[in-house]
TrEMBL record:
Cell compartment(s), UniProt: Cell membrane; Membrane
Transmembrane segments: 27-56
Protein name: Sodium/potassium-transporting ATPase subunit beta
Lipid bilayer topology: Single-pass type II membrane protein
GO molecular function, one term: ATPase activator activity
Gene3D superfamilies: 1.20.5.170, Na, k-atpase alpha subunit (2.60.40.1660)
InterPro entries attached to this UniProt entry: Na/K_ATPase_sub_beta (IPR000402), Na/K_ATPase_sub_beta_sf (IPR038702)
GO terms under cellular component: sodium:potassium-exchanging ATPase complex
């Protein structure tokens, strides 16, 4: 094939009617092949997705890697799990109080009485399906805000921050189907200083046994159990040393939950820092 100075004969050769070295028939065969090939791949993808969706349950994961040790988390979380404030400076703790107000709004006693059941404590609230009949939506047990007493925000709108006795709420992460206790013993929370030479002083827990009662388990998932209210434990630090950084670690204790590995700082535990300043 001759090529002129501009190279245009390679793009279109009028003598052979070739475009980029191929005739129209050759280009047609190539395009037809790739069209059929990609339509086949698209069809296989759609068919595979359709078969996979048929195996999924709208309410329960078909396959889930159940955590051996669920995590703990706190409210308020602060920045990087650090709570620094001055009782005399409202601006340093007001955001924490507002965060707790918002978080606890669904726990108001009136709302709980309207949406959830008054369950029997210290036993699992198991709701089995009946053969092919799905028991949905599943009911949930009441967790009333008043159970948190001094940390409910009802008696003290500042949650203790204005008096230098901060409240921290602790929750156990949700795991579908988990039964976190046996023989009627509920998992409970205990908090301590991460440094042996630092004394946290007196701690007050609400409820007083610091337990996540068994009646809130098992959890069936947010679609199956739409009104589920996660149980909480509040810890109030009664006499923290002023102007001192305190590293706190709270852990869950249970006769069915394995202790978390040291390398996973959120497995069965949560660590955070507190500092109460006088200015």
């Amino acid at each position: 094939m001759a090529k002129d100075a501009g190279g245009w004969d390679y793009i279109w050769n009028p003598r052979t009617n070739e475009f980029l070295g191929r005739t129209a028939k050759s280009w047609g065969l190539i395009l037809s092949f790739y069209l059929v090939f990609y339509l086949f791949l698209a069809g296989m993808f759609v068919f595979t997705m359709y078969v996979m969706l048929l195996t999924l349950d709208d309410f329960t994961p078909t396959n889930q890697d159940r955590l051996v040790t669920p995590g703990l988390m706190i409210r308020p979380r602060g920045e990087l799990l650090e709570l620094r404030f001055s009782p005399e400076n409202t601006e340093t703790w007001d955001a924490h109080a507002q965060s707790l107000d918002t978080f606890l709004e669904p726990y108001n006693d009136i709302y709980q009485a309207q949406t959830n059941d008054d369950c029997v404590p210290d036993q699992f609230f198991i709701q089995e399906d009946s053969a092919e009949v799905r028991n949905h939506p599943k009911r949930s047990c009441q967790f009333n805000r008043t159970v948190l007493e001094e940390c409910s925000g009802l008696q003290d709108r500042s949650y203790g921050y204005q008096s230098g006795q901060p409240c921290v709420l602790i929750k156990l992460n949700r795991v579908i189907g988990m039964l976190p206790g046996k023989e009627g013993l509920s998992p409970y929370v205990t908090c301590a200083s991460k440094k042996e030479d630092v004394n946290l002083g007196q701690l007050a827990y609400f409820p007083s046994n610091a337990a996540f009662n068994l009646m809130y388990y098992p959890y069936y998932g947010k679609r199956a159990q739409v009104n589920y209210t996660q149980p909480l434990v509040a810890v109030k630090f009664m006499n923290l040393t002023m102007n001192q950084d305190v590293a706190v670690e709270c852990v869950v204790v249970s006769n069915t939950i394995a202790p978390g590995a040291e390398r996973d700082k959120f497995a069965g535990r949560v660590s955070f820092k507190l500092r109460v300043s006088d200015q």
